[in-house]
Write a structure and sequence with these properties.
KR_dom; alpha/beta; six-stranded parallel β-sheet; binds nicotinamide-adenine-dinucleotide; seven-stranded parallel β-sheet
Length: about 450
């Protein structure tokens, strides 16, 4: 399998290339820290800012994770992360003090540092003052993400349904953003919802989180990954297996050899299957039931592009993209939801695309299918919540794979620089986000669309 590499980033990271890029004012993308089991969560002390009870509770959780926690900045100390807890905002006037305090500590950030906000979503039923203050965080974090350098990122956790700042789902999102798992996620928000049960009293959600094994969070779970023979799908299969899942790797018969290689590598099983087949969902369920007695995690990754301007679009291009990218997922989900084998805290994670959010020239068919995935995810969430399940989507931006290697060189070079981290992502970056959504600790994180795009300048 061909591994795509970004030679430019390698060149400007050291020696002569670094000096040259500096002198010519060329982009100097940082080498991003990627997740490795056993490596520290963050590289340096974590400064927790905010004066609410929620801020104290979040600081306590971080101490429980063995982090070196500060409640006030110490001049010149290299910080691994700043966590900004603003869960009690009532007016935009209240943003000034905590944000200036955060700002003054930003010069001391280590490379690949993290800034994470924890706040509440602005809702139509809020008073205009409260909504203005809460929505302000959105603008702040998206702007800050564009200001940070050296591989550092800024993201936010939103606490829906009045859940506590330290609720297990919110803390799982905080942990994801702090960790190197979120290397290519920048300027984004994750919303954590209540799971229908009170938090912190030995309930399902807190038990799951308390038992969380952060090293092998998917231990014993059974996962199916479609389009797993190469690219992002193969990376998802590897990442889920690394995190402890048993993986069923699915791809078309024509990709059988590569599929077998991936399945062997992850000690999983291969299932040759075209996801557009009417019986695809049933065949996956049969395969999972026979080998493992159940199915816990479904990753809809298989996807194709057939680009043409709409004026020149033929029905073959349109129909094949819609059939593979969205219609197959709708049909398979119906089969999964009807099955007793997919009943214990199930997880569905779909791979969408930033094209489905921002649109892309020549991709009306692809954007229809990927925006369709987003609509499907939001409408499927209530169907799964009854059985303690979640459904989310990741929306990759420019990821270095065979799919993007087909883009002409000049367009590709521009496309991969047009984001705050000034580089393309790796298939592993998408895979880490998928694996996060699959965790038991993310039980209240549902109906989210998470962009893994380095804060692409296109769209939101
Ligand atoms: P890829 O072309 O490298 O791999 C896609 C895999 O899906 C292939 O192995 C292919 O055989 C398989 N597949 C295609 N049709 C299938 C079918 N009918 N049944 C079963 N398997 C089928 O693509 P990739 O770049 O790894 O993309 C994976 C997903 O990520 C796709 O959904 C794609 O739309 C999405 N995505 C990719 C990027 C990117 O930059 N690469 C960006 C946004 C979204």
């Amino acid at each position: 399998m061909k591994v795509q590499s970004d030679k430019y980033t390698e060149f400007v990271s050291r020696g002569l290339g670094k000096d040259l890029a500096k002198r010519l004012g060329l982009p100097q993308p940082a080498v991003l820290r990627r997740y490795e089991p056993g490596a520290p969560l963050v590289q340096g002390p974590v400064l927790v800012l905010g004066h609410s009870e929620g801020a104290d509770a979040v600081a306590a959780v971080l101490l429980g994770w063995d982090q070196d926690v500060r409640r006030h900045a110490t001049p010149k100390e290299r910080l691994g992360a700043v966590v900004l807890v603003l869960d009690e905002l009532a007016h935009p006037d209240q943003l000034s003090a905590p944000l200036r305090e955060a700002g003054s500590s930003l010069r001391d950030l280590a490379r690949n540092a993290r800034v994470v906000s924890i706040s509440r979503p602005a809702l139509a039923e809020d008073s205009p003052e409260v909504a203005a203050a809460r929505q302000g965080i959105d603008g702040i974090m998206r702007s800050l993400a564009k200001e940070l350098r050296g591989g550092s990122t800024a993201n936010g956790v939103l606490l829906a349904n009045d859940i506590a700042a330290d609720s297990p789902s919110a803390m799982s999102a905080l942990r994801f953003f702090l960790s190197a798992r979120s290397a290519f996620v920048d300027g984004q928000f994750l919303t954590a919802y209540a799971t229908g049960e009170p938090v912190g009293q030995g309930t399902a959600e807190s038990r799951e989180a308390a038992e969380a094994d952060w090293g092998q969070p998917l231990n014993g779970r059974v996962a199916v990954v479609t389009g797993a023979a190469r690219g992002i799908g193969a990376a998802i299969a590897r990442t889920l297996a690394r995190d402890g899942a048993k993986v069923i790797a699915v791809d078309v018969p024509a990709a059988g050899d590569h599929l077998a290689q991936v399945a062997n590598e992850v000690r999983g099983t291969a299932l040759q299957l075209d996801v557009t087949a009417t019986e695809a969902g049933g065949r996956i369920l049969d395969h999972a039931a026979q080998r493992h007695g159940r199915l816990d995690i479904v990753v809809h990754n298989a996807g194709i592009t057939r680009d043409k301007l709409l004026a020149n679009m033929d029905s073959g291009r349109w129909d094949s993209v819609v059939a593979v990218n969205i219609a197959s997922q709708l049909r398979m989900n119906q089969a999964f939801l009807a099955s007793s084998h997919f009943a214990s805290h199930p997880r569905i994670i779909s791979v969408a695309s930033t094209s489905g959010i921002a649109g892309n020239r020549g991709q009306t068919n692809y954007a229809a299918s990927k925006a369709g995935v987003i609509g499907m995810v939001r409408a499927t969430a209530p169907l799964l919540s009854g059985r303690g399940g979640t459904v989310n989507a990741v929306a990759p931006g420019f990821i270095e794979t065979d799919m993007t290697a087909k883009i002409p060189f000049a367009t590709r070079e521009v496309a991969r620089r047009l984001n705050s981290l000034q580089q393309g992502g790796k298939p592993e970056d998408v895979a880490e986000a998928v694996a996060y959504f699959a965790q038991a600790a993310a039980a209240g994180v549902t109906a989210n669309i998470l962009r893994v795009c380095g804060q692409n300048l296109v769209g939101q």
